[in-house]
Design brief:
109 residues; mainly beta; 5-stranded antiparallel sheet; 9 strands; 42% strand
Amino acid sequence: MSKPIEEYGFIGNMLSGALVARDGSMDWLCLPRFDSDACFAALLGTSKHGYWRISPTGESNRPSRRYLPHAPILETTFETKGGIVTLVDFMPLSNDPERVDVVRLVQGV
């Protein structure tokens, strides 16, 4: 079952974009352009439609999230019994319109 739309943050680079759920799941992504076929489309149905999830394996509190100042960079922070980890998602600009990168960084806090 798909998540409510308010659970998603948006990242993009003016050529394409992705929706990232609060649980660290990228549930919508079209590459290399917005009008391309979806690589991940769990937003429209179930996990069978494709997703890319990065999150702690154990229990965690409700993740907090924010956009970094003056940048379309989404930061999601998970707090678990073992520690705190931050997932940073963004799509950098490129001079090559055929190249679209999705960057997902995991940082221990």
